[in-house]
Amino acid sequence: MEQTIQLSQGQVGKSYTVQKMKLPVNIEKRLEALGMTHGTSVLVLNSKSKGVLIVKVRGTRFALGRNITENIEVGRTA
User: Do residues 22 and 38 touch, judged by C-beta distance below 8 A?
Assistant: First the structure.
């Protein structure tokens, strides 16, 4: 079984695959609308202070707060 980590623990410049999201339904639906679904590849572009991550998903960049990134489980992309 693939080892998973929280997206908040992701390293800048590395790609990860979304495995599981444990978020309120409205936030999860919003992320799905932006293209972040189970199995989607996420590239961590930058890690700001206070746990804010800048990520790239399906060609679009956006910032996610720590409260969100700590509740998204990802696995390393080969």
Answer: no
Contact 64, 9 (CB under 8 A): no
Mean predicted lDDT score pLDDT of the chain: 92
Residues with Cβ within 8 Å of residue 34, at least 6 apart in sequence? 57, 60, 62
Q: Are 75 and 9 in contact (CB under 8 A)?
A: no
What is the share, in percent, of the chain residues with pLDDT greater than 70? 96
Count how many residues are written for the chain. Answer: 78
* One-character DSSP codes across 31-69: HHHTT--TT-EEEEEEE-GGG-EEEEETTEEEEE-HHHH
C-alpha–C-alpha distance, residues 56 and 60, integer Å: 5
Yes or no: say if 12 and 52 are a contact pair by the CB < 8 Å rule: no
Using only the alpha carbons of the chain, give its radius of gyration. 11
